Amino acid sequence: MTETKSEPPRHVTLDLIRKRSEHNERLVSNLEEIALHQEELQAIGPVLPRACGSSLRILLLQNNVISRLDPKEMKFFKQLEYLNLALNNIQVVEGIGHLEFLNKLDLTLNFISIDRLEESLECLSQMRSLRELFFMGNPCMNPQRGGFDKERGRMYVIAKLPQLEFLDGEAITRSQRLRARQRIVDLEEQLQRLAMIYRESLQNVVKFQRKDRLGEKELTSHCPEDRVKMSDELAKQKAEKDQNERANQPKFKNEKEIEQDQLQAVEKARKREEKGEIKQCNEGRWEFWFDEEKKPGHLILGVGVQKHLSSSLIDVDVHPTFVSVVIKSKVLRVKLPIEVKAGQCTAQRITTTGHLMITMPKCDDSKPVLKSEARDSTSSKKNVVDAPTPSFSRRKCLQQELVLDAMENFTGTVRLKGIVNTNDTIEDECIGLNKVRIDMVEKSTKQKSENCEVLTIESCRNVKMRKDGGEEEEDDDDDDLPPPLL
Question: Which residues face 301 on adjacent strands?
Answer without folding.
Answer: 290, 358
